[in-house]
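hi! just following up on the protien thing from before. the input was this:
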Amino acid sequence: MLVQIIAVFCVVGIAIGQILFKLSANSLHQTSSFFAPKTAAILFAALALYGITTIAWVWVLQKLELGRVYPLMAMAFVLVPLGSHFIFGERFHPQYFVGVTLIMTGIIVAVRA
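and the predicted 3d structure came back as:
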């Protein structure tokens, strides 16, 4: 059970990392420099989170079959757009929710198979 929880935390970490990458891109657009303190800090946080998440994911893969745990990564396709909505104010078309429903259904089917 602990391994599955850590696998979910890895997916959440990857999603948060994507949001941080977007924040660093926005900051880079404003400052025009990777070395501006705000840009560098956000980018470093994203890279550090990706690094930690990758190490945790390798540990998860030691314990579980790749084919059984990898479908959880599809949750990032749901979490990142949701985060972009709340943080950046991005909007969705109604068909997005159909896609999210299909993704979540696919994850459930694949993980329970």
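The chain has five helices and no strands.
The chain has one domain: 2-112.
cheers
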